[in-house]
Amino acid sequence: MIKPEERFMSEGQGYLGSSENPKTVTHCNVWDWDQLRMIKVIGTAKLFPPDEDVEVPILARFADYLSPEVRAVTVDDGGLITEVSNDPEQDDTYFIGYLPFSTTKSLHGCSVIQYSKLQELDRLGPGVDLSGYDDESGFPQKVAFKFNPIGKPRRLQMAWDELNLLKSLPPHPNIVPFDRVVLEDVESRVIGFTIKYIPGGTLDNSKQPFRFEWIQQLTQLVDFLNLDLGIMHQDVAPRNLLIDPDTQNLLLFDFDWAANGEKNLLQGRDDIAGVVFTLYEIITGDTSFTSIPHWDRNMETVQNMSEWTCNRELDSNVSTFRNFLNEWVTTRRSPGDMQRYLDAPNRLTWPGLPTPPDYSLPFELGTTVDGETNWVTGPRTRRTAVEKGQYIFHWERPPQSRLKNSGNGV
């Protein structure tokens, strides 16, 4: 089940007037990762001050009890519902023109599976389900199904890059294997992908013992990605590391923040720092550095600590881990390391994100200075796409709590 603290994502507060006037009507769009839909919460500036996301705990109290048709709820200054609306005009969800598989030549060598053939088994996190299917030989498979239902340009780009990166990676004993491209059933559009499911949970579980060989594997993997393939993962963290119960190898996954050479390279997110903070968190259980923006974190802060208080079972002394880490960091921080990354001999390449053919259909957006209809093309809201008769893939689903309460499970 999705963690309660990860279920909702607010897009912020929109004020129909001054935010300093407590009576100003305020709209807050909140995305529900469990039901995969947007709900607008309407109230006043008194209840919804800027940047506090009060709308999230308010919606969390009653989200499971709203009809699937509800697009907006109005609440009083105490956070209690006074009105619900099914009006499609209240739906600010952005339309996604998922790419037809026929137009994605870079993916044509991949195995595919239709969305209808995936059986939902659990909801692991935002945009990730545990799913099952029977392969061509009739053998049951368990996979993690990753998808992007949000039409933000940055998210669309990340989803495209991660899919192309994963299908291009050579097989590696420390990377969760890519499985299949997932296509919706009506028009065979690309809506996500699957990777092999590894049971047992991630290394942010402090009860999982940690071996010295696993930090060796992680540093070797980072060297391979950075210096051979020219890939910077940029999100090395305990939550993105697993231990394969069959091989007892450490496995890295979740490449949606990855950089390819200079493309998408972000300040403070290099993998060397990621490994330092990851090992520190694994050993000590201290997660305080995760709340610090990457560009403000200094890995020397933890490297120079006189003591790392151990709060996890280890197979070697803390000093053994730290000495190895420091020696590796010294090697990787040597002059010319960044150039070695940029000059990686086996750099992976893939095409840029294509423009969906759906976006070529013009739609009305206001009027010109002459009072004529202003016709534009490009991204649009879902309600606009509905008005234009465009095909829409709907992600909406019942809350998991209702499925479990009904006895059907997921």
From TrEMBL:
Coiled coil: none annotated. It comes from the Eukaryota. One of its GO terms (molecular function) is ATP binding. InterPro entries: Kinase-like_dom_sf (IPR011009), Prot_kinase_dom (IPR000719), Tyr_kinase_AS (IPR008266). SMART domains: S_TKc (SM00220). Its EC number is 2.7.11.1. Transmembrane segments: none annotated. It holds the Pfam family Pkinase. It catalyses: L-threonyl-[protein] + ATP = O-phospho-L-threonyl-[protein] + ADP + H(+); L-seryl-[protein] + ATP = O-phospho-L-seryl-[protein] + ADP + H(+). Component of the EKC/KEOPS complex that is required for the formation of a threonylcarbamoyl group on adenosine at position 37 (t(6)A37) in tRNAs that read codons beginning with adenine. The complex is probably involved in the transfer of the threonylcarbamoyl moiety of threonylcarbamoyl-AMP (TC-AMP) to the N6 group of A37. BUD32 has ATPase activity in the context of the EKC/KEOPS complex and likely plays a supporting role to the catalytic subunit KAE1. The EKC/KEOPS complex also promotes both telomere uncapping and telomere elongation. Component of the EKC/KEOPS complex composed of at least BUD32, CGI121, GON7, KAE1 and PCC1; the whole complex dimerizes. This is EKC/KEOPS complex subunit BUD32.
